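Subject: Coproporphyrinogen III oxidase

B.,
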Amino acid sequence: MRTRMTEFISNLQSTIITELENIDPTVPRFTRRTWDRAQGGRGIRKTGRRE
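Prediction pasted inline below.
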């Protein structure tokens, strides 16, 4: 169940970011960075740039 939820949230996050980027293709894209935590766990940080 944990794996399924992790995949669901990750896919949802990617879908939301992609749709936001599609609203106005002229603005800078989100920066994506993956990270791993020494105590266990990982994630993907997606941040937008301001002009």
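The chain has one domain: 2-47.

T.
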